[in-house]
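Run: sequence + coenzyme A -> complex structure.
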Amino acid sequence: MKPHFQKKISIPVRNHLTRDNYVLKRIDEVEPTEDRRKQITSICNEGKVYSWLFRDIFENKPYTEDKAKEFFEIGAKGWSENRMFIFLLLSSTGEVAAAIDIKSSDLDNAEIGYWASESHRGCMTNTTTELLGLARDAGYRKLLGRTKKGNKDSANVLLRAGFQFDAADSKNSEEHDFYRVDLQKNGNANKTLESMGTSSAGPDRVS
Ligand SMILES: CC(C)(COP(=O)(O)OP(=O)(O)OC[C@H]1O[C@@H](n2cnc3c(N)ncnc32)[C@H](O)[C@@H]1OP(=O)(O)O)[C@@H](O)C(=O)NCCC(=O)NCCS
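>> structure
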């Protein structure tokens, strides 16, 4: 069985800290404009995003606009081959604020990943919660989150979104911690975080 996502996905997401509204879209349904390539380039060179995700693989060289172009191309290919599913989070003015992906079509063990601009801090937990709902509707049963040890921001996103720490796998790895969510049991997919008592500033779902 392969995942089946709808086309024309457009999911409202609220920033927990600022209450600003965003929209989550498939990357193959977002116009890859020069402005958006520049926004992605800029975010991927920001301190936290660059140091956790790109410094090692790019050997200290900056994330270039060509990489952002490639990101759109790889994203479109992943969707067309039903193999890898990248989404972009856009601000109300259409700027790229964050990205989140499901890295494979394995319905029981696909890994998710994400980055978000520091200027939009507060959007990723709610984006992840929406992704879990989308993934469950597409046929995923379980998902994996893998953080580099010490990446507390990312671990907190996963925990707030309903993932559970996998102590055994984490103990066996020097580099990564592992988190898993069972979407058929207790994932936070499509629950309001407020209803789970984790929200302090009003409802996080945009109806
Ligand atoms: C990890 C990362 C995506 C987090 O993005 P973010 O938008 O800041 O994350 P959140 O949505 O969780 O927002 C963080 C803050 O909002 C609060 N928050 C957000 N949503 C919330 C919710 N629904 N309920 C309660 N609190 C919430 C958190 O408590 C947190 O506040 P605090 O730092 O004062 O405790 C971002 O820091 C990043 O891109 N890091 C570098 C790349 C990376 O590490 N990627 C993951 C690789 S595994």
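>> summary
The beta strands are 11-14, 21-26, 85-91, 96-102, 110-116, 142-148, 164-165, 176-182. Confidence is low (pLDDT under 50) at residues 194-202.
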